[in-house]
Amino acid sequence: MENLRLNVPLLRRRVPNLTSAARSVGLRPATVSNLCTGKIPVGRSEVRTLVALASLAQCTLDELILRGETVEMIETKIKTLDLFAPIVKGGTVGLVARPGMGQLVVLTELFYRLTREGYKTIFLKPQENYPELSDTISEVDIVVDSIEKAFEDIKAVGGSHDVIFAADRSHVLTGEIYDLQQKIEEAGVQSVTTFLLDLKGASVDEDLPYGPLETLWQFDADLSARHKYPAVNPIYSTSSVLEGAHLDQTHLTIQQRAQKLLRRYRELRSLVNVKGIDGIPASEIQVFNRGERLEAYLTQPFYVAETFTGQKGESVELETTINDVRKIIDGGTDSKELEKLNFIGSL
């Protein structure tokens, strides 16, 4: 099938408040979000949905649907992110989390890693004061306090470097982020990847907290409570890179198998919490044990947390992650002690 995807930047510019707009024409915000991230392929969507989106954006279907374009991912060497919800280079990433789930640690780690890969990092400070941002800001090349200054600096460094830009949701709600992204595009600046976080945590309760996204990272309260970091939910986080035409078939196959295993493991875990391990059928014990091991493997020590954890940060190539996850799913670590899989790099 021809490679099709939504023109998300166009939607973002034309329909900033996409949640309300989608509802007003009878579309489910969750459906629109899944189309934007690629969780629902454009080729499988209803024609009426695409027509309604084109009408909202006041564009033609040819403008709304991009054909034959590839999507490039940024490899972070963080296992969970690269396997389940890769960053789309030049796209927008939304972090959905309540305070205390570790979104700032993940963002700080990304700044640390990507700066060393040659990216220039720029952070737009929120309007309110958040002392917990100090560690994050310490890893950033440029910190600005206004949209105007953000545009000037992005334009200045964007000609010679790929840019990582981050801002709090407070700037999304004012519409400033959408205006900035339009100005960046009109200025011809290439490859600005935007991260949107929510320091107040209100985004968790909304269907479409940031508008259209290329990548969504949904943080998980249960993983965070059990100190399984990074606490990014591998089942509900997603990315437009995961459309089949954009992704290596082996990656896609392992990602889907891993999600299936983890989904069933979570269902079984809820029973184990109530009845103990004897409360699940004998035929499911193997599934539970492998899911438990995969969940443990997906934890990872971060460089920026070395002082606090006493553990050396680890980087894992995507190819290694895929091979390791395949081994776990196929039973290659069944005899390995669970504790030895927690917070490691590769197998």
Question: Could you please describe the fold and organization of this structure?
Answer:
A seven-stranded mixed β-sheet has the order 7-6-8-9-5-10-11, with helices on both faces. Strands 1-2 form a two-stranded antiparallel sheet. Strands 3-4 form a two-stranded antiparallel sheet. The chain is globular. The model has no long low-confidence stretch (mean pLDDT 90). With 347 residues, the chain is an alpha/beta fold. It has three domains: 64 residues, 434 Repressor (Amino-terminal Domain); 122 residues, 3-Layer(aba) Sandwich (Rossmann fold), CATH 3.40.50; 93 residues, Bovine Mitochondrial F1-ATPase, ATP Synthase Beta Chain, Chain D, domain3. Helices cover 43% and strands 12% of the residues. Strand 6, helix 8 and strand 7 form a beta-alpha-beta unit. It has 16 helices and eleven strands. GO terms for molecular function: ATP binding; proton-transporting ATP synthase activity, rotational mechanism. Pfam families: ATP-synt_VA_C. This is F-type H+-transporting ATPase subunit beta.
β-strand number: 11
Mean residue pLDDT: 90
Low-confidence stretches: none
CATH class descriptor of the largest domain: Alpha Beta
Q: Short summary of the structure?
A:
Helices cover 43% and strands 12% of the residues.
